[in-house]
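Let us practice reading a record.
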Amino acid sequence: MTSAMELLDAVQLREPGDWLSLILLLDQIPRNCYRGASSHVVFTIFDPLALGVAQAAVAAGIPHSAPEIRWQLALRTWFYLPLMHSEDAAVHEACRTQCEGIARDVELLLADKDGIDDEVYRHRAWTVIHANEKAARGLVDAQLDFQKRHEDIIVKFGRYPHRNEPLGRE
């Protein structure tokens, strides 16, 4: 496989959890398998695949429309990590927009005072968020800060300097 589209054509993802599994497989597993000099494999092979799959998932509405992902915020954030790992500033802008969507959903749930909803995942999220509003907002703030710190590096350097050695860059 040389592209995310080829990979997606081959695996035929059917459920939101399938998308999540593939993103974790391509984005997180390689980061834990290849370290140091061998991390160039992550940056040159796996990152482009993970990014393409994540972008396709976002375009398909998986993280913000599928209730089992949208309202389980910890799952939703995994869809955005491949965007954070990109060295493309425009991709970081798109990532920021997605992270801001999480913040809007948390505020939407906080504004809903009765939590009555037929959608089980949304109701569960409402219950968790209303149990500890401070922690919910803290999670959102941490996610937005994490994205901002990644984006700031790309804006300042145009790339992630810690990748220079494994990629043979000055």
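A brief commentary: The radius of gyration is 17 Å.
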